[in-house]
Write a structure and sequence with these properties.
It contains twelve helices and eight strands. The chain is of the alpha/beta class and 357 residues long. The protein starts with a helix and ends with a helix.
């Protein structure tokens, strides 16, 4: 048996040696490599170029839901105390899920917190109000967002956060730039109306939310409606540059048709988020926060937006940028853990209130 196995093995080795020496193996390998290259760098980009559905999915990532199985009606399950879940219906009849988070100073009473308690707290707000607009993927319950809400709460601020259509438990819609901007515009107007100048209202946008917030506020500026100030956390200047510089795009950058295949479709399909243009219409104070080690939206794109803001508004304290060293390791999501952030927020809020008074 052993001798038979040995003879068979030797025969296989001899056949393999003949195959390799004849060049068949190299030819087969070359064909596989060429075929793989054509699929990855030819067919897949071509499919992407002509598929608006895929472009939207990649940009908005609303199908990435983490943490899963969230019960939005019980924010305490993710550690958010003094928080109520409620819903708003936009002019386009899109139901949006939202949370209202009370400042710490309003959590000391023993009386139960009812919907009426929350509504009255917002109508008679004496503390700053933060309207938070999140980035792509996840929901208002994502852990890094919850960390930031808790910081706002400790600073004694009111917080309103919500999910755009097709995120969280909001209505399913066909996602578009116009759609998320319309949702945000509606929520901002609702907040401004209910607060009714009793307290300053600030907008905080993160990542894609910076593009959403700037576009929404640029539209509202035509009606002379502006917040007391806006925070832009990890922003980009426009989608064209963000797509070009995103790490996932780097493997395609060598292609001579890269811009036509990958970048242009976003512009053609009105997925532009041209923050470097919208920021011209923002008349309130602007604070940009960006980490040097952001591997999703490169720091350079936040810096480009800052320079665009300075171009339109001049080099003054109304436009500020905080550069967070890579040594802190905060990346794209965790600026909320920056030890100096509470002081930065409070100083900017105080300066903005003074400017607007």
């Amino acid at each position: 048996m052993q001798s038979t196995y040995l003879l068979a093995t030797m025969g296989f080795i001899a056949a393999l040696d003949t195959w390799l020496s004849s060049g068949t193996f190299l030819l087969w390998t070359l064909k596989i490599v060429v075929l793989t290259y054509l699929i990855v760098f030819g067919i897949l980009p071509l499919i992407f170029h002509y598929s608006y559905v895929i472009q939207r999915k990649i940009l908005f990532l609303n199908f990435v839901s983490w943490p899963p199985n969230i019960n939005f009606s019980k924010p305490e399950n993710v550690g958010m105390n003094g928080t109520r879940n409620f819903y708003l219906k936009t002019d386009q009849q899109v139901k949006l899920g939202a949370w209202q988070i009370l400042p710490n100073s309003l959590l000391n009473g023993t009386a139960p917190l009812t919907d009426e308690t929350y509504e009255n707290a917002l109508r008679n707000a004496k503390h700053p109000v933060i309207l938070y607009m999140h980035g792509n993927s996840g929901s208002r319950a994502s852990s890094h967002r919850v960390e930031l809400y808790k910081l706002f709460q400790k600073l004694d601020y009111h917080v309103i956060c919500f999910d755009y259509g097709s995120y969280g438990d909001s209505d399913e819609v066909e996602l578009s730039e116009d759609g998320v901007v319309a949702d945000s515009k509606y929520v901002f107007e609702w907040v401004m109306k209910i607060v009714n100048s009793t307290a300053p209202v600030f907008v905080w946008g993160h990542s894609l939310g910076t593009g959403v917030s700037l576009h929404a506020l640029a539209l509202l500026s035509n009606e002379s409606i502006q917040p007391a100030g806006i925070f832009l956390e990890a922003p980009f200047n426009n989608i064209s540059d963000e797509v070009s510089e995103h790490p996932f795009s780097q493997i395609f950058r060598h292609l001579p048709w890269f811009h036509w295949l990958i970048v242009e479709p976003f512009y053609t399909n009105n997925l532009r988020f041209e923050s470097d243009k919208h920021i011209e219409k923002i008349q309130c104070p602007i604070m940009i926060l960006h980490a040097e080690d952001d591997n999703v939206i490169p720091f350079a794109l936040g810096e480009k937006l800052y320079k665009a803001a300075l171009h339109f508004h001049g080099n003054n304290t109304r436009v500020q940028m905080v550069r967070i060293a890579s040594s802190y390791g905060l990346g794209h999501k965790y600026i909320c853990r920056y030890k100096e952030l509470p002081d930065i927020i409070q100083a900017f809020v105080a300066e903005s209130v003074k400017i607007n008074s």
